[in-house]
Amino acid sequence: MLKAHRGSACAAALLSAVIGAGVAGCSNKDGAQESVTSQDPPPVATEPARPQPDRTGRPRVGVASFYAGTFAGREMANGAAMDPAADNAASRTLPLGTIAKITDISTGESAVVVIKDRGPYAKGRLVDLSPSTARKIGISPKKGIAKVRVSPISVPLPDGKVKPGVAANDPEVSGPR
Fold first, then answer.
1. Structure confidence by residue, pLDDT tens digits, 89-137
2. Taking residues 166-173, what's their average pLDDT?
3. What sections of 34-144 are H helices per DSSP?
4. Which residues have C-beta within 8 Å of that of residue 64, sequence separation ≥ 6?
5. Which domains does the chain have, with CATH numbers?
6. Can you list the positions of beta strands (E) in 54-135?
7. Which of 53, 81, 91, 170 is the most buried (most CB within 10 A)?
8. How far, rounded to the nearest angstrom, does the alpha carbon of residue 54 sit from its chain's CA centroid?
9. How far apart are alpha carbons 112 and 93 in whole angstroms?
10. How far are the Cα atoms of 66, 110, 146, 171 from residue 130, in angstroms, in the given order?
11. How far from 88 is each of 16, 144, 172, CA to CA, in Å?
């Protein structure tokens, strides 16, 4: 019985020491102490941070997918209807109106697109392509995705000017300009 009492006393003393040390470290700018429970909790993010526009003109490598058939005719971010036969694409970071060369790294096939929409919103995806563009570079509905290089040809700037991208002088580039 004596051992149980001594253990409880030690535990209580240890708990008091820990709480006292924690409170002792809390003081405001005036040097006055305040309790740990009166501190404000850390801020909680209410919505995910928006990606910043990429106006560098540098190439990016990532995974491409393509628009599902249900998106045909729906309004894109630029206000146009999504045309599955056109060479358009969606990017979360490239400015709308960017012209880019998309190259499937495994096939070497490429196509030129205009960024007209926002997305893709699937985790880990860099760009969504129209079904026509996806077929041109070797992405089939069965395959679904591919590792691609997105090389901007021209990037619209906020002041209305256009910045040439890394693929601006690419002799293979042909398509919408």
1. 999 999 999 999 999 999 999 999 999 999 998 899 999 999 999 999 9
2. 82
3. 131-137
4. 102, 104, 125, 126, 127, 128, 129, 134, 139, 145, 146, 147, 148, 150
5. 60-164 (2.40.40.10)
6. 60-66, 88-91, 99-104, 110-117, 125-129
7. 91
8. 11
9. 17
10. 6, 13, 14, 23
11. 66, 17, 18
pLDDT, average across residues 156-177: 82
Paired tokens of 143: 């395959």
Burial readout 119-157 (b: 16 or more C-beta within 10 A, e: otherwise): bbeeeebbbbbbbbbbebbebeeeeeebebbbbbbbbbe
Tokens 């395959």 found at: 143
The first and second tokens of residue 144, run together, are 């679904």
Q: Which two tokens stand for residue 128?
A: 């969504």
One-letter identity of residue 97 = G
Q: How far apart are CA 132 and CA 135, in angstroms?
A: 5
